[in-house]
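Cross-check.
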Amino acid sequence: MTGQRFLQTEFWADFKSNHGWSRLFFKKSGDGSLEKLEHYSSEIQDAERLTVLIRRVKFFNIAYIPMAPEFAERNPEDKVDSGAIKNYFGTIENLTRELKKYLPSRTLFVRFDVPVDFTDIEEKNAFIKSSRGGKGKKSRVDIQPPDTVLLSLDKTEDELLQEMKSKWRYNIRLAAKKGVEVSRFRAGDEGFQEAFDRFYELFEQTSKRDGVSFHAKSYYMDLLSRGAKDEGGTPLVTLYLARHEDDYLAGIITLFCSSEAIYLYGASGNVKRNLMPAYLLQWTAIGDAKKYGCPVYDFYGCPPTDDENHPMHGLYLFKTGFGGKLIHRPGSYDFKLSWLYNFYEAAEKFRAWWFKVLVKRLHGR
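Predicted model, tokenized:
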């Protein structure tokens, strides 16, 4: 990927530091050493930057590095040889040792979300298999979604429409024909507060209907406020809201930056779903991302395969129908710094089971 991923930006780190995390900024040198910074200056290249998030959990700390360090530049369709994988994780091991002296005491481990893209899920599995044997351990819990859909925006709008499934083109036109209106809002715009309140109401409906969790209202408000103006390289965060007559039907929040556009959050109501507002919402955001200059639109999270038995199979169909490529990533890896990591890992595994299995079963009943 060309440019800095949004999860590694100072913008995102500052935002997360207002919601339970602290952050550290570093400049990486060619010899593997780190220089701690207060902020990133424009003179520091994207490849030299490393953003680390830290969270306090009871009496301990965990360190998290999302989407870094970058793997060698490659086509996602190409295979990765075992030697390159070994060297890559050797680099991460060295980075962990160098980072340790800057971390708070009682930091249990450093978790990396490794940014290696595959279009073939078997190649991803082979990567994970080849990574075994080092000091890093594949985490049982992935922080960022390991599977997603990336839509390249280096085409005309007509070409983008032509490459999506015909039913998707039909649904986009149907929504517009039936009078669904999509409005854009940024913090500070006239009508923003009412639009945001409506969006959050849709979020609550989505949570009750689908059994998904969401953040406090202040979390989304803070994000939208920080990304309200496209100034000095700051990502642009926008709320899109679909409305039909007096009914608010669905909404999404997107983030645009020079390297990517991200569909971060979405919500939908329980009325007039037959008007297909979600399709027009996404198409509007895709068009805006293209005009902004984003090279790719990331639908950000998707089931890994076309499995009809998957509980989120509908999400798979929706996101892949826009014509993008299904991408698979290895997910999270942990490099432990304390023997107490084993207890944390067991607790995290139980928590994941509780929310993903038991709570969803109870909700389904």
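The longest strand covers residues 247-256. The chain has a mean pLDDT of 92. Passed to J.P. for a second look.
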